[in-house]
Amino acid sequence: MGRLKSRQAGKKFLAVTGLFAMGVMLLLPIFVALPALAGGGGPAAGGPPADVIASQEAEGVEGEEVKVEIGRDVYYKTEGPVVGASAPKTADTEEFYPRYNFESRVLLWVANQQHLYYGSFVLAVPIFCMCIEFAGLVSKDKAMAKKYDQLAYDFVKISLTAYSLTAILGGILIFTFLTLYPAFFGYLSSIFRPVMHIYALMFVAESGTLYIYYYGWDKMKDGLLKWLHCSMSVVLNVIGTVLMFLANSWIGFMMSPAGVDEQGRFLGNIWHVLHTALWNPLNVHRILGNMAFGGGVVAAYAAYRFLSAKNDEERAHYDWMGYIAMSLGVAFLIPLPFAGYWLMREVYAYRQQMGITLMGGLLAWLFIIQATMIGILFLTTNYYLWQALGRMTGGERFQRYIKYFVFILVVGLLVFITPHTIVMTPAELKAMGGQQHPVLGNYGVMSAKNGGINAIIMTTIASFIWYQRGNRVPAVKWAKFGNIFLITFFVVAHLNNIWVACYGYFIPANVRIGLSVPQVAGTLSCLFFGSALNLAMLSKSRELGPIRWGQIAPRSQYALIMLATAFTWMMGLMGYIRSSVRLFWHVNEIMRDNSPWAYTHTIGFGANVISFNVLFFWITILFVFWLGALGAKKAPVPATQPVPGAAPQPATGH
Amino acid sequence: MTWLKLVEGYMPMQMISELAGSILVFALVNWALNRAGMGIPKFWAGIGVWIYIQLYLKYRIYPPIPFSVRAIYGTVSGCGIFMWVSGSEGEWQEFKRPILNVMDGISGFHKGLRTAALIVIPLALGGFAYNSFLPSFEEPIELRTVHPAPPATTKVHGKTFVLQVVENPYRVNNDGKYDQAYTDARIVEQSMGRLMKDVNDPNYNPWDPNAEGYTKYVREGGEIFFQNCHFCHGDNLNGRGLWAYAFNPIPANFTDAGTIAQLQETFVFWRVSKGGIGLPGEGFPWASVMPPWEQHLTVDEIWKVVMFEYWHTGYYPRTWD
After folding, report:
1. Is A467's Cβ below 8 Å from some Cβ in B?
2. Is B243 within 8 Å of chain A by CB?
3. CB-based contact, A365 to chain B, within 8 Å
4. Is the pLDDT at A479 greater than 80, yes or no?
5. Is there a domain that residue B49 lies in?
6. Any CB–CB contact under 8 A between B16 and chain A?
7. Domain containing B66: what range?
8. Cα-flanking dihedrals φ and ψ of residue A364, to 5°?
9. Do residues B92 and B163 share a domain?
10. Contact at 8 Å (CB) between A163 and A122?
11. Residues near A164 by Cβ (< 8 Å), separated by ≥ 6?
12. Which of A360, A383, A509 sits opposite B319 (nearest CB)?
């Protein structure tokens, strides 16, 4: 017995040492690259090639003092030595813009978007895995712990195939850049040279960690090793997040360049290049967006498996999986509009021109489409939750109030999507007496729209609270008082929201923008305080009946698929809007786009390309789902009566 | 509906309140009928509410709402009604029943309806297709953007202005220093029907002979406005000037919350200086005939007239600090 124990301890020690060594090796590229970062990326980022420097040195007179030119940072206004070449002045020729007999921009658009879809997915799913595996780890209920663990494994299994596709699409993207936009890509890579290498090395680290994480699942399933396994998901997510931040810095630089002078010459400070005006808002917005998107895609996967399930056991499992994925996705969807608001605020503050082009000018109609998509996301979420109430005994108590929630959601959405710039015939314009409608015109501006979206979000939070209570009745002593308080809290938050939305018309813009803080605070209070209070009330509760997993209307699963499709479409749309706002610039006000495609597409064309991207992504992700389901197809038909809610067992272990 | 007016200043909330009130009335009537055992079937209740909303939007709201917006509202309200009637399994079954009854042809009446539907629906679709192919003599829809994006800088009378940072030199306090808060406190009040706070005080009344500083500059801006701008933009700055209806679209209505109230003062300065002809190429056509006022006014005059427009409408220019 003692020998067995010491052998097990020895194995554990070896496993831990091996894992530590692996971690060190994976993170080595970052440590190696740090000195280069600190030094501004080594010699002359963006400078001429080594052979040119050598020939210049050979021509120069020995001993002559080298004159250092000083440039002024276009954003930070600091001075620094010019160590890079100017941004190339391109012309509409094959030299700068080699082309096939097709619009290069659209090719790049598709390559970029597909890479981004898969990139977002594989960055989001490990975060879910981390949360779910942790939930399983700390769960006292052994059956639940096993279910959570199986779910986390299911998640990572889907992301593994997607990960390979992400890398392939990344390669295609780089080739597209190199072949179609060599001058622009050359300039960008000269500026970002030091961090580009880090980016590539981080990818190696990410791949290594992901494979160990996945293939080590069975080997590290107990005790300390399980904790180590879960910790590895933290490392995986840290690497993934840094990767995304680096990729974001490129688009941040293209939109709001910094660290270069007016000619686009690098001034030696790579941190300035990374930390542009829009980098942080983009980072926050993308993290939340990726999570919401990842949740949507996994929920759609679960819905697809639910609808094609052959028995109650599978149906119960995938119903539960869809619910968890949807909840995680929506948890990140709720703060997403606030992050978007911050991003737009920073865009306005950076360049009024950009802000107006986005929200009041050329791209304003795309924003209306975006608002519609946001509305669809929230309405679909509510709809799913109402359907989910149907599988709980006692859920029908709440269903009779659905119509009132529908009213608030519809009115909020109508205000939220009312266009500031109305599409109309000249005859309608004359009948209206001007470009602005005296009634609806007021819904077209930010003050009202903030009110609309906050009303929608608060209603969604209330639906979640309903759901939590579906089959339970609070049994704490103060339940009555708690209920009155909770209802009053939501009513006051709604009234505050409406009041601020109206008051916003009578105050200066800067005060109005400041007032969005109490408005958002009301909504977030509903989210955090309302949910916490509800959970506290349910800490001691009477159960009216079990949750009948799998016994949910198929409409709910179509709602999940719609949710995922809306996420995908909206991501495509917002990426297009964000990129289009640069108009005819590769790098805003630094490097001009002189290709024949430096114009803004019509809304119809843009929408068609976005739809194509969405369709392409879903066809390929269906392939990924199919691969994920291949193993499950080998599973033996269970001989015993299926137990609703139990996880289906994998065919050959993990 | 002349007996129940839409009250200026309250119209947006009035519209929502009226809709909410009428939906509440429907709910109460339905509840009472249900209690009396004569409840309206879900199918007809859903369709009835949807039709009511469309009629309300078309005939209650004046001036008429363009079709594109009504189509958006119709679609959203349709989705809302679907969510309501299919929110729970019982209600969804109830809603579907009349449709399934017709499709199954459970009685002679239902069979007749089914036959009629099989004839009418293809005919209606055919009619729709035929109509869409007919030549139309209506002017085409213009997807015009109201706010052109300004450039980062603009050159007026040989001087370059960085629009992000430049300040109106006449928006000053008694010490002659730029002071947004000081001037904001002296504009006319919207809540008072765009009236001055104190006509006897030169600090608030630009036409007081003793007006100095900001209020004096507002008066000078007003004089420029009434010499040059009011013919189109109107003496109430609402875009209903003497010549307004000669243009399509009519000139901008500054009293609307969606025009100058949404913009930085420098935007208006640029827009006035460059007029319609100086607008950027993207998003063409702008359909603006405003002259480039830099050819007729000095830089100082343009700043003053911009300041007058904000003063008179009671709006504050957008700022970021």
Report:
1. no
2. no
3. yes
4. yes
5. yes
6. yes
7. 11-104
8. -60, -35
9. no
10. yes
11. none
12. A509
ipTM: 0.81
Contact between residue A119 and residue A106 where contact means Cβ atoms under 8 Å apart = no
- Into how many domains does chain A fold? 1
User: Using the beta-carbon criterion (under 8 Å), do B145 and A421 form an inter-chain contact?
Assistant: yes
Q: Which residue has the tokens 């008429």?
A: B64
- Triad A265, A187, A202: Cα angle to 5°: 110
Comparing alpha-carbon positions, the chain B residue that sits nearest to A381 is: B83
pLDDT of residue A56: 52
Query: How close are the terminal C-alpha atoms of chain A, in Å?
Result: 29
Q: Quick check: is B75 in a domain? A: yes
Q: Is residue A77 part of a domain?
A: no
- Residue A70 pairs in a beta bridge with A81
Nearest by CB to A445, which of B87, B140, B258?
B258
What pLDDT digit, counting tens, does each position of A534-561 carry?
A: 999 999 999 998 899 999 999 999 999 9
Interface contact B7, partner A, CB < 8 A: no
DSSP B167-190: --TT-B-TTS-B-HHHHHTTSPBG
* A252 has a pLDDT exceeding 90: yes
Contacts of B86 in chain A (CB under 8 A): 555
Does any CB of chain A come closer than 8 Å to the CB of residue B87? Answer: yes
Q: Taking CB atoms and an 8 Å cutoff, what residues of chain B touch A441?
A: 256-258
Report whether A395 contacts A438 (CB < 8 A).
no
Q: Which of residues 142-181 of B touch A (CB under 8 A)?
A: 142-152, 163-164, 180
Are B178 and B302 part of one and the same domain? yes
Q: Cβ–Cβ of A506/B191 closer than 8 Å? A: yes
Give me the residues of A, 478-517, that contact B with CB < 8 A. 502, 505-510
CA dist A224 and A137 (Å) reads 11
The whole-angstrom distance between B45's CA and the closest CA on chain A is 12
Side chain identity, residue B165: V
Q: How many domains does chain B have?
A: 2
Question: Do B161 and B293 fall within a single domain?
Answer: yes
pLDDT at A352: 79
Within this chain, do residues B29 and B96 fall inside the same structural domain, yes or no? yes
| The 3-state secondary structure of A164-195, one letter per residue | HHHHHHHHHHHHHHHHHCHHHHHHHHHHCHHH
pLDDT: which is higher, A170 or A643:
A170
Model pLDDT for residues A116-129, shown as the tens digit of each residue: 999 999 999 899 89
B11 CB neighbours in chain A (<8 A) are: 438-439, 442
* Same domain, yes or no: B207 and B272: yes
Residue A81 falls inside a structural domain: no
Q: Is the peptide bond before B202 cis (omega within 30 degrees of 0)?
A: no
Indicate whether B98 and B160 sit together in one domain. Answer: no
Chain A residues in contact with B139 (beta carbon < 8 A) = 425-427
The Cα A305–Cα A633 span in angstroms is 12
Domain residues for the domain of A534 are: 392-543
Measured between CB atoms, does A357 come within 8 Å of chain B? yes
Mutation choice for A interface testing from B18, B147, B240, B245 by most A CBs within 10 A: B147
Q: Is residue B109 part of a domain?
A: no
Is residue A141 assigned to a domain?
no
Choice among A96-100, A636-640, B167-171, B226-230 with the minimum mean pLDDT: A636-640
Domain CATH code at residue B237: 1.10.760.10
B287 lies in the same domain as B182: yes
CB A22 within 8 A of CB A235: no
Closest partner residue to A399 (CB to CB) among B23, B88, B283 is: B88
Question: Is B163 a residue whose pLDDT tops 90?
Answer: no
User: Tens digit of pLDDT for each residue in B207-256?
Assistant: 999 999 999 999 999 999 999 999 999 999 989 899 998 887 889 889 88
Task: Identify whether A487 is part of a domain.
Answer: yes
Which pLDDT band, with edges at 50, 70 and 90, does B206 fall under? very high
Choose between B214 and A442: higher pLDDT: B214
For residue range A36-60, what is the model confidence (pLDDT) as tens digits? 554 444 444 444 445 545 555 555 5
Q: Choose the mutation target among A370, A398, A408, A423 for the interface with B, i.e. most B CBs under 10 Å.
A: A423
Q: Which pLDDT value is given to residue A429? A: 83
Distance of alpha carbon A541 from its chain centroid, rounded? 36
Establish if B5 belongs to a structural domain.
Answer: no
Confidence of residue A64 (pLDDT cuts 50, 70, 90): low
Q: In terms of domains, do B80 and B169 share one?
A: no
